[in-house]
Amino acid sequence: MADDRWLIVGLGNPGSEYAGNRHNVGFMCADELAGQIGVTFKRDRSRAMAANGRLRGVPVTLAKPLSFMNLSGGAVASLRAFYKLPTEQILVLHDELDLPFGVIRLKLGGGDNGHNGLRSVTSALGTRDYHRVRIGIGRPPGRMDPADFVLRNFSAAERKELPEILGRSADAVETLLTRGLAAAQNQFNA
Can you give the pTM of this predicted structure? Predict the structure, then answer.
């Protein structure tokens, strides 16, 4: 069954009380992609909400793990095994504290930088060598604990900008899949 399929996983926490949290921007980007390609998420046996479709002709499985962020790796490993995908065809969409709000960066591999979702994915896959789209959420104000900050909703001003940021994030995914990492980095990491 292995093909040129990509597994695109948005990280977040399930449940309506977390839906608007900064930590859920990965889920939001997965939803943006699903909307663009006209697919709907359904509960999957891999402990994720999943949707299959084509993004610019490339077969994709979009996924949002149903476990909490720090346990999301299990669903990713399960989907990878089901589709028999090489790790290089896995893309994780996630929030990034160390990037200013709205900044998007793409990379392959790297550490988890204290991100529990990435730590879980790396542990479950047994490698760091998967693609990431890092969506900047900025640093917490003052001495606020980063763990509290990521579980806060975006501000009203940030929410106004979110549709454009999620659109650019989806464009970054599309560019990565159709033109490769270097082209996507040149366009979006500038």
Answer: 0.95
